[in-house]
Amino acid sequence: MTLNELETLAELSLFELLKRSRAVHEANWEKQEVQLCTLLSIKTGGCSEDCSYCAQSARYSTGVDAERLMSKDAVMENAHAAKANGSTRFCMGAAWKGVRQGTKRFDDVLDIIRGVSELNMEVCVTLGEVGAEEARQLRDAGVTAYNHNIDTSPEHYPNIVSTHTFQDRMNTLQHVQEAGMAVCCGGILGLGEQAEDRLRMLEILSNLDPQPESVPINVLMPMAGTPMEESKAIDSFDLIRMIALARIAMPKAKVRLSAGRTDLSKEAQAMCFFAGANSIFYGEKLLTAKNPSVQRDLELLETLDLKPQAPFADVPKPPAAACVASV
Ligand code: SAM
Ligand code: DTB
Ligand code: SF4
Hints:
Elements: H1 3-10, H2 14-28, E1 33-43, H3 72-84, E2 89-94, H4 104-116, E3 122-126, H5 132-141, E4 145-147, H6 157-160, H7 166-179, E5 182-184, E6 187-189, H8 195-206, E7 214-219, H9 236-249, E8 254-257, H10 266-275, E9 279-281, H11 294-303, E10 307-308
Parallel strand pairs: 1-2, 1-9, 1-10, 2-3, 3-4, 4-5, 6-7, 7-8, 8-9
Helix pairs in contact: 1-8, 2-9, 3-4, 5-7, 8-9, 9-10
The protein binds S-adenosylmethionine, 6-(5-methyl-2-OXO-imidazolidin-4-yl)-hexanoic acid (DTB) and iron/sulfur cluster.
Iron/sulfur cluster is lined by residues 47, 49, 51, 54, 56-57, 95, 97, 128.
C-alpha cells in the first residue's frame, strides 16, 4: 500500500475506518478466532544494543540482570506447558545483537529449536540480526517464523537506536525471507513518533514481498532506567486505528495485539479485536514485563465470544522465498 493510500485511510472517521477494517477482516479470517502465543525469554538481559525502549540493553540500569542461555530442558518444560494451555505458537526471544553460525550459543539454540519443533506448534524466534546462512540453519532446525521488528519509520529509527541501522533490520528480513521462513515484523507505538511515522512503518511493512505473516503491534511499556522511562502514554484510540490500518494494508497477516495490554481496558482490547487483531501473547509474562493473567484473558475472550485457535494437526509451511523491497 502506498503512503498516499494510507494517509487517505487515516483521515477517515474512526467508525468509517473500523467498518472497512472489519470487512477486510471478515473476508479473510475466521472472525471469532484468536491465536494464543506463548513468549519465553530464553536469554535475558546484557544486550550490547542501545534500543532506548528496552529493559534488556546493558547500557541502562534497569534492574534486569544478564542471564545465560536457558537450558534445553527448561525451554522444553515451558513449551510443553504452553501447548497444554492452548497456545499454537511458541516464541523464543534472546537479548542479542544477532547470531553467528559456528558459535556454541547458536548451536545450542538450534538444538532447542529442534526440540520445540516436535510439539506441533508454530515456532518463532527473535534472536536479533541473522545472515543468509544463519537463516537457512534456523529454517532447517524447524523455525516457522522469525520475529524482527522495524519498530518505527526509517526516519525516526535513528532517534531510538544508534548501534544498528534501519537498513540492518531490513537486511535481516531479506535473509529470513530468502531462507523461506515466515516474517513476523511490526513495531511499537509511543516512541515519540509522529502520526506520519506510523504510516511510513505500515507502508514499509505492507510492501514487503511477501507481506509479513504476522505483525505485532506493541504499545511502549516504559521501563525504569531506559531513556523512554518518562514517555507519555498513547491514546488507546491511536492503537485501535493502527490495528485497523494494519488489517486493511495486510489482509492476510495475523495482527498481534502485543506488549502493553496490561494498561488497556477490556473495552479498548475489544475494539482492537473488532478492528482486526487476531492474535495475542498469552501468559503472565512477556520477556521481562508483565502481561495480563491467564484468568483475565480467558474471561475477556469468553465475554467477547472469541475462540482460541485450535491446535494444529500439522503446522503450515512458511510461504515461498521472495525478495524484500528496499526502503
Ligand atoms: N534482540 C532482538 C531484537 O531486538 O530483535 C529480540 C528481542 S526484542 C526485546 C523484541 C521486540 O520487543 C522489539 O523489537 C520491540 O518491538 C519489543 N519491545 C522491547 N521492549 C519493549 C517495550 N518496553 N515496550 C514495548 N515493546 C517492546
Ligand atoms: C514483539 O513484537 N513483542 C514481543 C515479541 N515481539 C518478542 C516482545 C515484547 C517485549 C515487551 C517488553 C519486555 O517484556 O521486556
Ligand atoms: Fe537488544 Fe533487542 Fe533489546 Fe535492542 S530490543 S536492546 S537488540 S534485546
